[in-house]
Amino acid sequence: MNIQQKTCDAEEGAKERAAITGVIGKDSAQLDATISDTAQALLSSGYNILGMVQERGKKRAGCAHREMRLRDLVTGQITIISESRGEQARGCHLDRAALLEHAKQFELRISDMPELVIINRFGRAECEGSGFRSAIELAVSLNIPVLVGVSSNYHDSWKEFHGGLADETGLSSVEIINWFESLQATKVTVLALDAGVDLGIENIG
User: Fold this and answer.
1) Torsions phi, psi for 189 (to 5 deg)
2) Is the pLDDT of residue 113 over 90?
3) Residue 121 to residues 65, 69, 175: CA-CA distances in angstroms?
4) How far apart are alpha carbons 26 and 58 in whole angstroms?
5) Which of 171, 106, 170, 169 minimizes the C-alpha distance to 133?
6) How does strand 49-59 pair with strand 167-169?
């Protein structure tokens, strides 16, 4: 089941398009940097954001890889989501149990209704139905804008997941911020109209 089906099941009369966009990139370091820079710019502008950004930590003794870390944008807390498998280990060293536990705690905080939820990566765990997948689904069902980093390697799985609901951007903080601020402007306009505020817009025709 993709996110479009789940959203419609969760909320009758849900919007035709959800406020969700994927930042698509081939280079993981550039993708992480773009999302981190965008998040810091939005936080500096005073927006209420809930999110995680991925960072590469130090290489530990007896391990072939550097640590994989998640940094909480609100608290600054660092969570290690990788495990040491020895000097000769190759392939993915993600600690799936640590990631899942962290995702569950993160999901509980979405009920605080931030203005934007940032998920650093739609990766292998999310493709397999784990990780932050349900957090994305929850935010979309609550009509909270969601920004998700997507590696080119998982682009097809991402498109299958969102079922045509999501927009996409490249590695451009300016483009992402424009997307988010346009959503905020639309929200303000809708709220004003609902409240009967005269915006000075003529009724043509």
Assistant:
1) -65, -45
2) yes
3) 19, 12, 18
4) 23
5) 106
6) unpaired
Sole residue written with tokens 């045509």: 164
Q: What is the mean pLDDT of residues 43-47?
A: 94
What Cα–Cα distance (Å) separates residue 123 from each residue in 16, 119, 159?
26, 10, 13
Rounded CA-CA distance 2/153 in Å is 19
Q: What percent of the chain has pLDDT over 90?
A: 50
pLDDT in the model for residue 28: 87
Which tokens go with 41?
Answer: 């710019």
Beta strand pairing call for 66-72 and 78-80 = antiparallel
List the structure tokens of 165.
Answer: 């609901």
Give dist(CA 10, CA 54) in Å, integer. Answer: 30
pLDDT tens digits along 137-162: 999 999 999 999 999 999 999 999 99
Q: What average pLDDT does this structure show over 105-131?
A: 93
- Cross-strand partners of 59: 66
* Tokens describing residue 5: 């089906």
Asked if residues 168 and 24 have their Cβ atoms less than 8 Å apart, the reply is yes
Helices (H) and strands (E) in the chain, counts: 7, 7
pLDDT band of residue 14 (cuts 50, 70, 90) is very low
> How far is Cα 130 from Cα 85, in angstroms, rounded to an integer?
22
